[in-house]
Amino acid sequence: MNIILFGPPGAGKGTQSKYLVKKLNAFQISTGDLLREEINKNSDIGKAIINHMNDGIFVSDEIVNKLIENFVFDPQKKNKLIFDGYPRSLSQARNLEEILKKSNQNIDLILFLNVDKETIIKRIEKRKIIENRSDDDSDTIVRRYDTYMRTTQPVLNFYSKNPNFKEIDGNLEIDEITRKIDTFVNV
Ligand code: AMP
Fold first, then answer.
1. CA pair distance 144, 138, nearest whole angstrom
2. Does position 138 have pLDDT exceeding 80, yes or no?
3. Atom of ligand 1 nearest to the CA of 57
4. Whole domain around residue 129: which residue ranges?
5. Residue 134 pLDDT > 70, yes or no?
6. CA of 59 to the centre of ligand 1 (A)
7. What separation in Å is there between the alpha carbon of 33 and the centre of ligand 1?
């Protein structure tokens, strides 16, 4: 099964992706994690994106599209892809369709974790204490949420017409969200 987890920062995509990875013996593709890795390695990509990341602004489609390609074309990961934080723009969504088609794959499930701004602010402030992420200060949180909502609205419209699109109340507790997800993932 290939699954897209969709939802604003703090909606619980990372947590639920990790659950799905275990359950399905699958592979998480978190573009946020991949980008943070580039920064930690101080690679050319890392140097080019550090300011965007710290300011909560989206990194260019070209860079993220390139980062996910290796996963999609890896035969061992075929039909075992959990997308966490990608696609986030219409151009990324189109790119994904194209490379999945090229590799003979589909999206089997699109999970939209829909969550209020207030819940997100509370969650990210908690995570800030636990993980100490540099892009987690309050101003950045609001900026990331607003950027996400503005940029991803067209992506949401694009996917909401798909019969595999499922909306889940992301304000629920983690376990409750997992239980809802389980009803869509039957193995
Ligand atoms: P995340 O860990 O998913 O919340 O992502 C953290 C930051 O990484 C975002 O605020 C963006 O700056 C960048 N980022 C992650 N995924 C993408 C993506 N698909 N497209 C553009 N920027 C991204």
1. 10
2. no
3. 12
4. 3-184
5. no
6. 7
7. 8
Residues with Cβ within 8 Å of residue 158, at least 6 apart in sequence: 90, 93
pLDDT at 124 over 80: no
The domain spanning residue 12 has which CATH number?
Answer: 3.40.50.300
**14-33 pLDDT per residue, tens:** 999 999 999 999 999 999 99
Residues 82, 17: contact at Cβ < 8 Å? Answer: yes
Residue 15 structure tokens = 């947590």
Reported as a single tens digit per residue, the pLDDT across 66-80 is 999 999 999 999 999
As for how many domains the chain has, the answer is: 1
pLDDT band for position 172 (cuts 50, 70, 90)? very high
Ligand 1 atom 5: residue of nearest CA: 32
